[in-house]
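Researcher: Structure for this, please.
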Amino acid sequence: MGWEALRQWGSDAARIEKLSGGSSNDVWRVRVHGRVAVARLGTRSDADLAWESRLLLHLDREGLAVPVPIPTADGRLFADGLTVMEYMEGGPPQSADDWRRVAETLRRLHELTRGWPQRPGWKSSTDLLQAETGTRIDLTAMPAEAVARCRAAWARLAGRETCAVHGNPDNPGNVRITPDRVALIDWDEAHVDVPDLDLVLPFNGGGLEGAALDSARQASAAWEAAVCWQDDYSVRRLAEVRPV
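Model: Predicted structure, token format:
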């Protein structure tokens, strides 16, 4: 149905301006019920979108600043691949103090989602020690030596407790900061994994040290290499992962 689905949020719903940053989706600033919102159109399954919506509603109830889904006129949280969410005010983190605030918010996310079920179709980094595919990751498309390096990095996280992770919080465009709160936006890469993957932040905002920092950096670089394989960015990230 495409953007015609926006009519399901009311006859006055309209697109205003296309937004940048969505590699897998078409994202626009829209007006719904007389207020500004953000709409995302993609090809995710209903089960995938239901998982994301449930997570965001849970986090909102617990006091985290997240883009809560705005229901259609008949109460659905998404329709025909389209999700409309609250617009989050603020700017990107810039200083070391900003990134420490981001880490505090991420740790709260992790605490609130221990034992959370995996996003449909996804695999965690440690699942990929055995599995070969999961959503955007296909290890069979990578050279065997690259797969061995990635799995060696992920193996250092084996046995750790898992929770929901944002998946891309080190991108300043995915954070909106105001003096009184930190909002995390763009949950398209959220899934269940080891929390340290979220804490590899600019200025070492996550406060990891020693072996924990090294393990997280290696595992994060391996994850980005596998997710984006094979483009220039993925090759650069793989170069950060130590040979076996």
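Researcher: Any notable elements?
Model: The chain has two domains: 2-86, 96-239. The two ends are 48 Å apart (CA to CA).
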